[in-house]
Design goal:
With 78 residues, the protein is mainly alpha-helical. It contains 3 helices and no strands. The protein starts with a helix and ends with a helix.
């Protein structure tokens, strides 16, 4: 966020100095977009880290081992 607003200002200044129209967004909208983007990226990373994506054979083997361990613990409690 601290980098986004000055970067936005520099891009706008560069566009104006080259004779182009500035970016048609306010700094508040740019900041809100960056904050939302960071939130979405954080949500995806948290989901990815907390879920077993069984794409590789190693991940599938570990998932099977985890399920076996859970079944064993459940039977042990009976």
């Amino acid at each position: 966020m601290r980098l986004a607003i000055p970067l936005y200002a520099m891009v706008n200044a560069l566009l104006l100095s080259l004779g182009y129209s500035p970016i048609p967004f306010t700094p508040e909208k740019v900041g809100a977009f960056i904050t939302g983007l960071i939130g979405v990226i954080g949500l995806i990373v948290a989901w990815w880290k907390n879920n077993n994506i069984t794409i590789t054979p190693e991940a599938q083997g570990m998932q099977n081992a985890l399920e076996d361990k859970k079944a064993y613990n459940k039977l042990k409690k009976l």
